[in-house]
From TrEMBL:
Name listed for the protein in its UniProt record: DNA ligase (ATP)
One Gene Ontology MF term: ligase activity
EC code: 6.5.1.1
SUPFAM superfamilies to which the protein is assigned, alphabetical: DNA ligase/mRNA capping enzyme, catalytic domain, Nucleic acid-binding proteins
ATP-dependent DNA ligase family profile domain residues: 628-748
Family: In the N-terminal section; belongs to the LigD polymerase family. In the C-terminal section; belongs to the ATP-dependent DNA ligase family.
Pfam family, one: DNA_ligase_A_C
Catalyzed chemical reaction(s): ATP + (deoxyribonucleotide)n-3'-hydroxyl + 5'-phospho-(deoxyribonucleotide)m = (deoxyribonucleotide)n+m + AMP + diphosphate
Low complexity bias spans: 500-516
Region (Disordered): 324-343, 500-530
The species this protein was found in: Microbacterium lacus
Highest taxon, organism lineage: Bacteria
Keywords noted in UniProt: ATP-binding, DNA damage, DNA recombination, DNA repair, DNA-binding, DNA-directed DNA polymerase, Exonuclease, Hydrolase, Ligase, Manganese, Metal-binding, Multifunctional enzyme, Nuclease, Nucleotide-binding, Nucleotidyltransferase, Transferase
InterPro entries linked to this entry: DNA_ligase_ATP-dep_C, DNA_ligase_ATP-dep_cent, DNA_ligase_ATP-dep_CS, LigD_ligase_dom, LigD_PE_domain, LigD_pol_dom, MtLigD_Pol-like, NA-bd_OB-fold
Length: 841
């Protein structure tokens, strides 16, 4: 069972550690099922306990969720729910996700491969989890159908007994075809039948097979079976819904809760149970009890079907280092080996281990144990490098699913999470060399890769090996490079999300000595990044001036060390890993360290900077997701100022001098760095900005110094499209097509006495944005009004939210009372904090 350790005991909000992952849970005592009094805490506890048997049936499959943030209601007064396909932007970075193309653009679907992800989904009231009958491939593309499903839906006058009879007829036919079906009572009215398909079956073929099967049963039993959706034909009959084998369709996942009046579960059953005349749906309490008693009746269909899970192997060294009373790791009683299991491909697991020294534990099933190595740098991403691997003691097979925090002071103390796991095909296993092709979780970071382990020194435990990525696969084809292995963010041995940092300008230090030495430049931005800021132009500028295009992106300070660039956002957060196309190459800035000011921009198909497009990159955390998205949404880094170079601080020098030095430094830069031109004619700059449909220009005084963290009148913004950063303070309910999302957002702008009301925005939202904003704002709901002077009409029916999120809107003008007119949503600004928002004059 997952470790769930509360960091504080507040009843409304807690930080907990689940399987080595840290996340915030709220409102555990909130009742989600009024008729039974079942709370969110009980829902989270259910998904925590059921995860071990549920995950094999859903892993690798995109999850569509049905959410009830306010509970399911009652039979008489059911509450509203909404479907969620793409994962909300506020989801933790460790929640795995993969995209599926849609007409409005790709949507990132969550994938459930661990208990922490189940707990997160339960925290946001995702009660029902629906999945298709296919898994992603190792490359992250849509795979073939691996399961056939028949959904048996009783019409008026029919029930589970009739469904059970139809299931027996289907079982007989499927058995003659060599397919062994498993029944699942749906938790609602009917049941499903699942059976495994042989490899290489397209979803279209599976759907056609199910359709023919349904029609055949209908032809033999027309009094009880119907295979079409027409309601007037369904009275007293069971519909065999074959359509859920379609590649775009989903079915309630085995072991998922249902959002009905009672917390029933889509529960796998035995065929003997279907003979019971009192057969009924099962509650989540009953399902937990039966799993503890009989296990999973449907285990043979799981992704790791056939894998051994008992405590097995010659494990004396492993047991000698651990005490079951002091560590959550599996510690078997018997150090002997388990007899060979079913003839299936052996498993592997790679675990990220934040112990005294960070490393990745590489484990291969062999002779009933997990033969193990500690790899300080993880699996090499390229055949051009070899990584050191140190052999450790053999581990029990049950360690393949272990995630958690080993207490400090115990052997291996620290957090353990699964980086990837799956099965492997063995080519060679000798005492000094192992060659195998590993295939990880569908869509996982490893993919399918051929690896070699070569012993270089010593024997047995502590021996040294090289882990090598082969140049070719087993068929002789060149293997592509994989993802660079990077650690998850850590704090005190627990995985956490990076916390946003407020932007604060450093105080002037009159004792500081300038220029600093070359070594002084390297840590110059270690605590904060505070670029100079422009004011909105409220006066005519002086002479001489120059003008630059205003790029619709996010500011970033670039720290160049002579070979690679590090990027620091305005908030002080290091965003280097988010933009590898800029930071993983030598961009040609020369051998000496330097500090640059610039803008990260994403370019649309018309060659125009697009802030909405950049949003698809700003919130990514996982290296695999970043690597995938960089090919769809590449970024550029536009340079416009130089803060330090050649061991000297340049911020006290005039802008004209800094620009000259920047042009010299950037003379040989390579894409994706760009040095845009400057204009000495403001009107010409405005004309060019209009022609290329840019946001506007920035007018600068060429004699000005660089003032860190200051909103300077030496830099003046001239916007062709007026935009305003705003703080979200409330949600007005929607109607019609927006009944399940919202009609508009209430906005605030900081003033001298706190937040001032700035009006509403109700346009500019795509359907995806509406849903994702609802999900992002759900944890911020509050009963307290965060600002004053909201007109009664605007406040009617509003759900207030804590003023923590910043967005950006386009608008026509401010009314005399400070209300935005003709506002249109542009997007969230996760790079900004509420205290940074100022009213643009």
């Amino acid at each position: 069972m997952a470790d769930a350790r509360a960091d504080r005991s507040a009843s409304k909000e807690q930080l907990v550690t689940v399987g080595g992952r840290r996340l915030k849970i709220t409102n555990l005592d909130k009742v989600l099922y009024p008729e039974t009094g079942t709370t969110k805490g009980e829902v989270i506890a259910y998904y925590t306990r059921i995860g071990a048997v549920m995950i094999p049936h859903v892993t690798g499959r995109p999850v569509t969720r049905k959410r009830w943030p306010d509970g399911v209601g009652t039979d008489e007064h059911p509450a509203q729910s909404f479907f969620a396909k793409d994962l909300e932007p506020g989801a933790p970075g460790w929640v795995h996700r993969l995209p599926i193309p849609h007409s409005g653009g790709p949507k990132d679907y969550p994938l459930i491969g661990d208990v922490p992800t189940l707990v997160y989904l339960a925290q946001v009231a995702s009660l029902e989890l629906h999945v298709p009958q296919w898994r992603f491939t190792a490359e992250g593309t849509r795979g073939d159908a691996d399961r056939l499903v028949l959904d048996l839906d009783p019409g008026p006058g029919a029930g589970l007994a009739e469904c059970a009879q139809v299931a027996r007829w289907a079982r007989e036919i499927l058995g003659h075809m060599g397919l062994d079906p498993y029944p699942v009572t749906s938790g609602s009215k009917g049941m499903q039948l699942y059976c495994a398909l042989p490899p290489g079956q397209r979803s279209e073929a599976a759907s056609a097979l199910a359709h023919e099967l349904a029609r055949a049963i209908e032809a033999d039993h027309p009094d009880l079976v119907v295979s079409t959706m027409k309601k007037d034909l369904r009275g007293g009959k069971v519909l065999i819904d074959w359509s859920q084998n379609n590649t775009a369709k989903t079915t309630i996942a085995p072991y998922s809760l249902r959002g009905r009046a009672h917390p029933n579960v889509a529960a796998p059953r035995t065929w003997e149970e279907l003979d019971d005349p009192e057969l009924g749906q099962l509650s989540f309490h009953e399902v937990l009890d039966r799993v503890d008693s009989i296990g999973d009746p449907m285990a043979a269909l799981g992704v790791h079907a056939g894998a051994r899970s008992a405590d097995d192997a010659p494990l004396r060294a492993y047991i000698a280092k651990r005490s079951a009373a002091r560590t959550p790791e599996p510690v078997p009683d018997d150090p002997s080996a388990e007899p060979p299991g079913p003839a299936t491909l052996p498993i592997f697991v790679i675990q990220e281990h934040h112990a005294t020294a960070l490393h990745w534990d590489f484990r291969l099933e062999h002779d009933g144990v997990l033969v193990s190595w500690a790899v300080p740098r993880g699996v090499p991403h390229s055949s051009r490098r070899n990584n050191l691997a140190i052999m450790t003691e053999d581990h029990p097979m049950s360690y393949a699913v272990f995630e958690g925090t080993i207490p400090a002071g115990e052997y291996g103390g620290g957090s353990v999470t699964i980086w990837d796991d799956g099965r492997y095909e063995l080519e060679k296993w000798r005492e000094d060399e192992i060659i195998a092709t590993l295939e990880g979780r569908p869509g996982g970071p490893l993919g399918r890769v051929r690896l070699a382990l070569i012993r270089t020194d010593g024997h047995g435990e502590k021996s040294s090996w090289l882990l090598h990525r082969m140049k070719t696969d087993a068929e002789g084809r060149v293997q592509p490079d994989g993802v660079v292995v990077e650690p998850s963010p850590q704090a005190d041995g627990i995985v956490v999300e990076p916390a946003p940092q407020a932007e604060t300008a450093p105080a002037e230090d009159p004792t500081a000595t300038w220029p600093p030495t070359r070594e002084d430049l390297r840590p110059m931005l270690s605590t904060s990044a505070t670029p100079e800021r422009a004011k909105l132009a409220a006066r005519r500028w002086g002479d001489p001036v120059w003008a630059e295009a205003k790029w619709d992106g996010i500011r970033a300070i670039g720290v160049w060390d002579g070979s690679r660039l590090r990027l620091v956002a305005r908030s002080g957060n290091d965003v280097t890993a988010k933009y590898p196309e800029v930071t993983e190459i030598d961009v040609g800035l020369g051998p000496e360290p330097a500090i640059i000011d610039g803008e990260i921009v994403a370019i649309d198909e018309n060659g125009r900077p697009s802030f909405p497009l950049l949003q698809s990159r700003m919130n990514l955390q996982r290296p695999a997701e970043i690597a995938r998205e960089r090919t769809r949404t590449p970024v550029q880094y536009h340079l416009f100022d130089l803060l330090a170079a050649d061991g000297h601080d340049l911020t006290a020098r005039p802008l004209a001098d800094r620009r000259t030095m920047l042009e010299r430094l950037a003379a040989r830069v390579t894409a994706p760095l760009v040095l845009p031109p400057v204009f000495d004619d403001v009107d010409a700059a405005l004309q060019a900005s209009r022609r290329f449909d840019l946001e506007g220009i920035v007018v600068k005084d060429p004699a000005s110094t660089y003032r860190r963290g200051v909103r300077s009148e030496s830099w003046l913004k001239v916007k062709l499209t007026r935009t305003q950063e705003v703080v979200i303070v409330g949600i007005r309910p929607g109607q019609g097509g927006r009944a399940q999302t919202f009609g508009s957002l209430l906005l605030g702008i900081p003033g001298p006495d706190g937040l001032d009301y700035a009006g509403r925005v109700g346009t500019g939202f795509s359907d995806t944005t509406l849903r994702s904003l609802m999900q992002t704002l759900a944890p911020l709901h509050t009963a307290e009004r965060p600002l004053r002077d909201v007109p009664a009409l605007d406040a009617r029916g509003v759900q207030w939210v804590r003023p923590e999120l910043v967005g950006e809107v386009e608008f026509g003008e401010f009314t005399p009372g400070g209300i935005l007119r003709h506002s249109r949503w542009r997007g969230l600004r996760p790079d900004k904090a509420p205290e940074d928002v100022v009213r643009e004059s």
